[in-house]
Amino acid sequence: MIAPENLTLLTDLYQLTMAQAYFREQERGRATFSLFIRSYPPNRGYFVSAGLQDVLEYLESFHFDQPGLDYLASLSLFSDDFLHYLAGLHFTGEVLAIPEGRIYFADEPVLELTAPIIEAQIVETFIINQVHLQTLIATKAARCVHAAGGRAVVDFALRRAHGTDAGMKVARASYLAGFAGTSNVLAGQRYGIPLTGTMAHSFVSSFEREIDAFRAYAASFPNKAILLIDTYNTIAGAKNAVQVAKEMAGRGQKLLGVRIDSGDLAASATEVRRIFDAEGLTDVKIIGSGGLDEFDLERLAAAPFDSYGVGTRMGVSADAPWADIAYKLVEYQNRPVLKLSTGKASYPGKKQVFRQTGANGKADKDIIGLRSENLPGEILLGEIMRDGRTRSNLPTLLEMRETLAGDLDTLADRVKAIREPSRYPVEFSPKLTALREEIAKKNA
Predict the structure, then answer these.
(1) What CATH architecture applies to the domain 13-132+320-442?
(2) Mean pLDDT, to the nearest integer, of 59-86?
(3) Quick check: helix, strand or coil at residue 210?
(4) Which helix (H) or strand (E) holds 365?
(5) What is the per-residue pLDDT for 2?
(6) Rounded to whole angstroms, what are the CA distances from 111 to 44, 188, 341, 404?
(7) Of 54, 337, 298, nearest in space to 176 by CA
């Protein structure tokens, strides 16, 4: 069995140079860092919490192995006593977080980490890296599910994902967000995600006749065949698929569906549906694909598609490939601290998020308060790690899907809108606001 890769050096150099400076100055006090997104990318009205499991696994296994220490020594940058300190370093802190599959909003801490400052500083880069990507993808995927209006959506993003790790995380995050499955076979094995797939245009063109390609595929998959009908001419392809469907029916088999991957998808689907219905093949499904995302799915709402394959644009969050995510020190040695930089100001102290729900079951507003406050509403940040160990079993991926579906049901349609969503109300408690003003005045 291959040992898992040690990712402790997956950090920015300045995390380690700061750590040595802390070490030399005997700064070992406990620090709390807050992870949050400052603002919404275009057309976003909410975020989906994702990536927490990878963060917890990283923190539990955090240690510097000998090859890593040897490499740091080779840089002639770090002192021997600091490297000796790193050799025995493990994560010993606590983590409070909004669980994966919950909705959260700009300025709300999705995670707060408290640990000796050197530990808390070094892990910053990995935490941002994991939560940033998976939040973007899960949010984009949730928007696709919403725009599909009840039709199944499947992840086709692997080939154009930004590397192998991203491809795996895209499959997981999109399934969490409500996708019905993935084409990624390894993700199916690792995460238990249902697999789905059809055929490529190369398979069709490798045969002299399109109908022969269809027959060959149907022979191999007599109960799972989905035929790609747009390699040459979509309407002619549909008619060939009708012929193959009838041949299958004569053998007691059934054509599952056809896929359209190019052209005017709405017009093609309408004509293909008419062709199949006229032949009594009303249960043959039509799948749409080809560079789709939530904006396309919204536009295709009236087209007779049964499901969609969504790939590149979802897998790279094409219209919003980054978010202004930040990991900021908010308390050190029981002293609340903040940042006052223009456009990047933060709020001090350990925090909690309280979600208030109206009589209609819809989420009304969130209040960001101090963790010591007892405000009305559901408490979103829960303690999931203590003394460097996860406290209890994490929810399964299926449970996260169900949680997210419930959260989205409580969110007003205007906040979930695909274009120009309304802003969900998020307030800061009077005590938190007063603390911020007090500290800002001291540092003015």
Answers:
(1) Alpha-Beta Barrel (3.20)
(2) 98
(3) helix
(4) strand 363-370
(5) 44
(6) 20, 28, 22, 18
(7) 54
What residue ranges do the domains of the chain occupy?
A: 13-132+320-442, 138-315
- Is residue 133 within 8 A of residue 140, CB to CB? The reply is no
| Dihedral angle computed from the Cα positions of residues 348, 322, 99 and 180, in that order, rounded to the nearest 10 degrees | 170
Residue 318: CB partners within 8 Å, gap ≥ 6?
293, 312
Mean pLDDT value across residues 110-136: 98
- Residue 373 neighbours by CB distance under 10 Å: 15
What is the rounded CA–CA span in Å between residue 147 and residue 374? 37
- Give residue-wise pLDDT tens across range 157-177: 999 999 999 999 999 999 999
CA geometry: angle at 411 spanning 405 and 413, to 5°? 105
CATH number of 138-315: 3.20.20.70
Say which amino acid occupies 302: A
Interatomic CA distance for residues 390 and 401, integer angstroms: 21
d(CA 141, CA 188): 17
313-355 residue pLDDT tens = 999 999 999 999 999 999 999 999 987 776 767 899 999 999 9
Task: Give the three-state DSSP class for 89.
Answer: coil
Once rounded to an integer, what is the mean pLDDT over residues 361-367?
A: 96
Question: For residue range 65-76, what is the model confidence (pLDDT) as tens digits?
Answer: 999 999 999 999
Cα–Cα distance measured from residue 422 to residue 205, given in angstroms and rounded to the nearest whole number = 48
Structure tokens at 341: 């930089």
For residue 127, give the H/E element and its range. Answer: helix 124-148
- Compute CA 303 distance to the chain's CA centroid, rounded to the nearest angstrom: 28
- Supply the pLDDT for residue 3: 52
Backbone angles phi, psi at 240, to 5 degrees: -65, -40
Closest CA to 99 of 416, 405, 444, 395: 395
DSSP state of 158: G
Res 45: pLDDT? 98
Q: Is pLDDT above 50 for 357?
A: yes
Is the torsion defined by CA of 263, 269, 271, 275 positive or negative?
positive
> Which structure tokens are listed for 340?
């006052």
Question: Quick one: which of 77, 35, 75 has its CA closest to 55?
Answer: 35
Tell me if 102 sits within 8 A of 49, measured CB to CB: yes
Which residue in this structure is represented by tokens 């291959």? Answer: 2
Cβ 180 vs Cβ 154: under 8 Å? yes
Residue 314 CB partners (closer than 8 Å, separation 6+): 137, 140, 141, 144, 155, 157, 170, 174, 293
**202, burial (CB in 10 Å: exposed 0-12, middle 13-18, buried 19+):** exposed
Contact between 355 and 408 (Cβ < 8 Å): no
CA distance 38 to 17: 27
